[in-house]
Amino acid sequence: MNTTSSTRCPCGSGLVLEHCCGLLHQGENAGSPEALMRSRFAAFALGLEDYLRHSWHPDSCPAQLGGDDDTRWKRLEILDSGETGDQGWVQFRATFAEGPRGRQRWGVLEERSRFVRHQGRWVYLDGEARVSRLKPGRNDPCPCGSARKFKQCCA
Questions:
Q1: Three-state SS across the chain?
Q2: pLDDT of residue 67
Q3: pTM for the whole thing?
Q4: pLDDT score at 5
C-alpha cells in the first residue's frame, strides 16, 4: 500500500502514520501492549506481513498468516488494556469489510489478546477471538467510524 507523509495511521490515533505506528513498523519497540496492538492492526490494514511475524511470539506464530487481500480493516476500538510485569492484555474490537465494494460484507472481530515481553520487547502471544457479522443499513452510521451515514461513506 502506498503511503504519504500525510497518511493518517490506520490505528485510529488521529496521528500521521510516520509519527505513530510507522515508528514501530520501522523497528522502534512498543512501550506497551496497547501500542503493540495498535501497530499490529495498522500492519494488518497495510499488509505488512514481515512486521506481523516480528511482533508475534515465535512459539505461537503460525506458519501461514492466511491474510486475505479482500479484507479491508476499517476501524480499531480499544476496550481495555493493561500490563502486570512481563505480561499484558488488550481487549479490542476491529471492524472490517470483505468482498467487492457494493457487495461487501461487514464484520467485527472482538478479541482479548495476551502479550508478553520476549527478549526485552512486547510481542503478541495469543488471543480469544469472536467474529460477528454486521448488516449496516443505508442510513445507519458507517461502521468505519467516520460519523457519516453508511450510504454516504463506505456503501
A1: CCCCCCCECCCCCCCEHHHCHHHHHCCCCCCCHHHHHHHHHHHHHHCCHHHHHHCECCCCCCCCCCCCCCEEEEEEEEEEEEEECCEEEEEEEEEEEECCCCCCEEEEEEEEEEEEEECCEEEEEEEEEEEEEECCCCCCECCCCCCCEHHHCCC
A2: 62
A3: 0.90
A4: 59
Cell numbers placing 108:
467485527
The cell numbers describing 35, all together, are 501500542
**Longest CA pairwise span in the chain (Å):** 49
Predicted confidence (pLDDT) at residue 2 exceeds the cutoff of 60: no
**Residue in the structure block whose three cell numbers are 490515533:** 13
Question: What is the amino acid identity at position 92?
Answer: F
To the nearest 10°, report the CA torsion of 99, 103, 108, 113.
Answer: 0
Here the cell at position 96 is 472490517
**pLDDT (mean) for 115-142:** 94
